[in-house]
Amino acid sequence: MSRHFKEELAKELGFYDVVQREGWGGIKAKDAGNMVKRAVELAQEQLASRGPRG
């Protein structure tokens, strides 16, 4: 993930303030998991919006 994308996800999920204060190592494992889950959801939405290929 790009730095910008990770920051946007952290803002959306409400823990960007922790990232600013402590860096990425300061976030909880649960927050990291939620960030990955959200990234997967967004990727799936993007693929679904493209429609069938072929």
Number of beta strands: 0
Structural class: mainly alpha
Estimate the global geometry from the Cα principal axes: elongated
Helix-strand sequence? HHH
Q: How many strands, which pairing sense, and closed or not: the largest β-sheet?
A: none
What is the helix content? over 70%
Radius of gyration: 13 Å
In DSSP terms, counting alpha (H) and pi (I) runs of 4 or more, how many helices?
3
Distance between the termini: 28 Å
As residue ranges, the low-confidence spans are none
Instruction: Name the beta content range.
Output: under 5%
Provide mean pLDDT, rounded: 94
Secondary-structure blueprint of this entry?
Layout: H1 3-13, H2 16-22, H3 29-50
Helix pairs in contact: 1-3
Protein architecture, described:
This protein is 74% helix and 0% strand. The chain is mainly alpha-helical. Helix 1 crosses helix 3. The longest helix has 22 residues. It is elongated, with a radius of gyration of 13 Å. The termini are far apart.
Summarize it.
The protein has 54 residues and is mainly alpha-helical. It has three helices and no strands.
Features:
54 residues, mainly alpha
